TrEMBL record:
GO process terms (BP): xenobiotic detoxification by transmembrane export across the plasma membrane
Mode of membrane association: Multi-pass membrane protein
Family classification: Belongs to the major facilitator superfamily. Bcr/CmlA family.
GO CC terms in record: plasma membrane
Location relative to the cell: Cell inner membrane; Cell membrane
Ranges that cross the membrane: 20-43, 55-73, 85-104, 110-131, 143-168, 174-193, 223-241, 253-275, 295-312, 318-341, 353-373, 379-400
Source organism, top-level taxon: Bacteria
Keywords attached to this entry: Cell inner membrane, Cell membrane, Membrane, Transmembrane, Transmembrane helix, Transport
CDD domains, A to Z: MFS_MdfA_MDR_like
InterPro entries reported for this sequence: Efflux_drug-R_Bcr/CmlA, MFS, MFS_dom, MFS_trans_sf
Protein name as catalogued: Bcr/CflA family efflux transporter
NCBIfam families the record matches: efflux_Bcr_CflA
Amino acid sequence: MITTTGQPVRQGPGFAETVALVAALMGLTALAIDTMLPALPAIGASYALAEANELQLVVYAYMIGFGVAQVVYGPLSDVYGRRPLVIAGLIILIAGAIVSALASDFDHLLVARVLQGVGAAAARVIAVSIVRDRYAGREMARVMSFTMMVFMIVPVLAPTFGGLLLALAGWRSIFATMAALSIVVGLWFYVRMPETLHPEFRRALSVRSILDAARICVTNREAVGYSLAIGLLFAMLMGFIGSAEQILGSDGYHLGVLFPLAFASVAITGGIAAFVNSRLVRTWGMHRLSHGSHLVHVGLTAAFFVAAHLFGGLPPLWLFIALMIAMQFFFSIAISNYNALALDPLGEVAGTASSLIGAFTTIVGTIGGALIGQAFDGTVAPLSAGFFALSAVTLLIVYWTERGRLFQPHHQGIVPAGAE
């Protein structure tokens, strides 16, 4: 294709390569969390940390940077385009990984992890915008479905990958490998992906437009309620991820090198739930599916709480894993639909709203998860209490959001069967 100026237009990668590249960009964000989980005890030993719970900050520092930066990347990519922001973010991510590998003390490592999170946010946020720029309707849905299926594999395999690097070359090699992989993905993106934002859709940088979008978000009952729900549910996930190595690997069940396998058995459930949700949501609708799943989740967290206390804080491993898998399944269905319900009434400011809600829910989830993780006492009792309290409170928030009408779509006009 030739432009009116006689210059060739870069068409970019085809469908399969787009899926692979977008999944690689998004996968870097998960890789930066899960790959280093098996290395936490080695990091603690290297810096002679007296308190094992401090190691959780390696996870939470990254997530704080990741959450805050989302506010910036979305609006800026609408002004300057997708390519420069993705490339800038990857450079920051690479720098953070290199500094992490060379960190001389624990405080420097935490600062570097924040830097990694700031860089990774660009890949995560703008990757979705690139898909939206290049595809529409069913084709966009196909790309995102395939992308998420690939993306879900990362948390399953990452701890094993990190464990291998740890055994072969020490914990610093994990961060060095993150930098190397980010460089590879960055070069791939630079060479193959053209600018996807159409010139006509570029916006002027305006603080007022961002504030107007924020005002629309905070004055919409559904957006506020479901954003709070997402944040509090995400806190449960972050509470588990932050303390997973201690619970399963070193202090609770003492699985040691088998930790990645146990972690993977829980992590893979999210991918299965995403597939099930994609099959059921058109028939059942988002409200019925998410509210029903949440009710089941509350019951499961109550059972987890009871089991933790009946067995002195450490239920049998098989029971703990079974409960975690079941909770993760219904959690994943609920939170994926809550994301859609939070954005559903914000179509006029969807791009900026997505960034603002993403930042808010990540920060709330990280802070809540850190509170749960820091309460770890060698048992799963604090985790079970946090899960039950947060799931129950979140259901009350959803009840308030829906004005007491759970399971019922409430759009005006006639709603087709199964549509929302």
